[in-house]
From TrEMBL:
Protein name in the entry: Enoyl-CoA delta isomerase 1, mitochondrial
Record-level GO BP terms: ecdysis, chitin-based cuticle; fatty acid beta-oxidation; neuropeptide signaling pathway
Entries under InterPro entries matching the protein: ClpP/crotonase-like_dom_sf (IPR029045), Eclosion (IPR006825), Enoyl-CoA_hydra/iso (IPR001753)
Subunit structure: Homotrimer.
GO CC term (a single one): mitochondrial matrix
Pfam families: ECH_1, Eclosion
Species for this entry: Danaus chrysippus (African queen)
Pathway, per record: Lipid metabolism; fatty acid beta-oxidation
Compartments where located: Mitochondrion matrix
Function according to Swiss-Prot or TrEMBL: Key enzyme of fatty acid beta-oxidation. Able to isomerize both 3-cis (3Z) and 3-trans (3E) double bonds into the 2-trans (2E) form in a range of enoyl-CoA species, with a preference for (3Z)-enoyl-CoAs over (3E)-enoyl-CoAs. The catalytic efficiency of this enzyme is not affected by the fatty acyl chain length.
Length: 341
C-alpha cells in the first residue's frame, strides 16, 4: 500500500514530533502507523485563533509538508469545541499594527492549509462557529460527530462580514442559495443539516469514529497516482489562493476597518465580558456608559443564564447609548430582558 510505504520512510517522525508536542504546545502532533499526521488542537479553553496559535498552526503545517507526510487530520483535544474561531481578544480594541500582522498571519495559514499538497481532513468533534468552520471547510473532507454541536458562519451576528475568500470557499462547497442564506442569517447547522447541504461529508458517532472515517477517505488515495491527485487539487484550489495573494493588503485593510467599527466593538466587548473570569469592571478604561452598560448585561447573563436575554440587553445599550444601565440586583432595571422560560 502506498501510504504504508510512505510511513516506513517516515517512521522516525514519531520521535521528531516531540518538539511540537511539549507541554506548552497548543497543538499535539502524532504520526500514526499509516503515516497520517493527527493534529490535536489544544489551546484552552476553546481553540480560538490568537496570533500565537496561528503561528503554531503555521509551523505545524510546515512540519507536515516538509516531512512529506501524505495526509493530515485536524481535530480538537477538547470534548465540546472544535474551534471557536477568531480569538475575541484579538478583535477587541485592536492595535492597528498588531491586528494587521494578525490578519496577515491568518491569511498565510489559510493559504497553507487550503493549498496543502498533502491530503487534509477535519474530524469536527464539537462546536465550530465562524473561523472554526473556515478551518474545517479548508480541508478536503469533513466528518462531524453527532450531538448538540453546530457548525456555521455566524459572522453577521457579530457585526462582521466574512472575508471574500471564505465566502468563495463556501459558495464552491455548498450551493450559492444555501451559502447566501447561511452567511446573511448567521445560520448555525446541526450535523444532520450540515450534511444535507454538503457543508460536511459524513456524520460520526464519536471522535474515534470521526478519525476512522477521515482515514477511510484518505485511504481512497492509495489507488490514485500521487502526482495526479496533487496537480488536480492545485488546479482546483490554485486560483483562489492566487486571488488572495494579489489582494492581501486590501483584504487586511477591509477587515481592520470593519473590526474597529463601533458596532463590531460593542459585540466584541459583550462576548469578552460574557466570561465570568474576565467580567471585571476595573479593566474598563475611562468611563463610557455604553461600555459599562454592555458589561453589566454580560454580568447579568452570567448570573441569570437562560432567564436573561443578554444580546437584547446589549442591543438596548447601543440603542439608548448607555443611558439605562442595568443592575442585575434591581428587578426593575432588568425586567425588560427577563424571558418567560
Ligand atoms: C485555516 C485558518 C483558520 C483560521 C480562520 C479564522 C478566521 C477566518 C476568518 C473568518 C472570520 C471569522 C470571524 C470569527 O471567527 S469571530 C469569532 C466567532 N466565534 C464565536 O462567535 C464563538 C463564541 N463562542 C461560543 O459560541 C462558545 O464559547 C462556544 C465556542 C460555542 C463554546 O461554548 P461553551 O462550551 O458553552 O463555552 P463558553 O461559552 O462558556 O466559553 C468557554 C470559555 O471560552 C471563551 N471563549 C469562547 N469563545 C471565544 C473566542 N472566540 N475568543 C476568545 N475566548 C472565547 C469564553 O469567554 C469562556 O471563557 P472563560 O472560561 O474565561 O469564561
Amino acid at each position: 500500500m502506498l501510504l504504508r510505504r510512505v510511513y516506513k520512510q517516515h517512521r522516525w517522525l514519531a520521535s521528531h514530533v516531540k518538539f511540537l508536542s511539549t507541554q506548552k504546545s497548543s497543538i499535539d502532533i502524532k504520526v500514526d502507523n499509516d503515516g497520517i499526521a493527527i493534529l490535536n488542537l489544544q489551546r484552552p479553553p476553546v481553540n480560538s485563533f490568537s496570533m500565537d496559535f496561528l503561528k503554531e498552526l503555521s509551523k505545524s503545517l510546515d512540519f507536515v509538508e516538509n516531512n512529506k507526510i501524505t495526509a493530515m487530520i485536524l481535530t480538537s483535544a477538547f470534548p465540546r469545541v472544535f474551534s471557536a474561531g477568531l480569538d475575541i481578544n484579538e478583535v477587541y480594541k485592536p492595535d492597528a499594527v498588531r491586528f494587521k500582522e494578525f490578519w496577515t498571519t491568518l491569511q498565510e495559514v489559510w493559504m497553507k492549509l487550503f493549498g496543502a499538497r498533502f491530503i487534509t481532513a477535519a474530524a469536527i468533534n464539537g462546536q465550530s462557529p465562524a473561523g472554526g468552520c473556515l478551518m474545517a471547510m479548508s480541508c478536503e473532507y469533513r466528518v462531524m460527530i453527532k450531538g448538540t454541536f453546530t457548525i456555521g458562519m455566524n459572522e453577521t451576528s457579530l457585526g462582521l462580514i466574512a472575508p471574500t475568500w471564505f465566502m468563495e470557499l463556501v459558495k464552491n462547497t455548498i450551493n450559492v442559495r444555501d451559502a447566501e442564506y447561511a452567511f446573511t442569517t448567521s445560520r448555525m447547522f446541526t450535523p444532520e443539516e450540515a450534511l444535507k447541504v454538503r457543508l460536511i461529508d459524513e456524520i460520526a458517532a464519536d471522535k474515534d469514529d470521526a478519525i476512522a472515517k477521515c482515514k477511510r477517505f484518505i485511504k481512497k488515495f492509495d489507488e490514485i497516482t500521487p502526482s495526479a491527485r496533487i496537480n488536480t487539487k492545485m488546479k482546483l484550489r490554485g486560483p483562489a489562493i492566487k486571488k488572495l495573494q494579489n489582494t492581501r493588503q486590501e483584504d487586511t485593510e477591509e477587515i481592520y476597518q470593519l473590526v474597529i467599527h463601533p458596532d463590531t466593538q460593542k459585540v466584541a466587548i459583550f462576548q469578552l465580558y460574557s466570561s465570568p473570569v474576565s467580567a471585571n469592571p476595573a479593566i474598563i478604561t475611562g468611563y463610557d456608559p455604553m461600555e459599562v452598560c454592555i458589561e453589566n448585561c454580560a454580568q447579568c447573563k452570567k448570573m441569570l443564564g437562560a432567564w436573561f436575554e443578554g444580546q437584547l440587553c446589549a442591543e438596548s445599550c447601543i440603542k439608548y447609548r448607555g443611558k439605562m444601565i442595568p443592575d442585575c440586583e434591581n428587578y426593575a432595571s432588568i425586567s425588560p430582558f427577563l424571558n418567560k422560560l
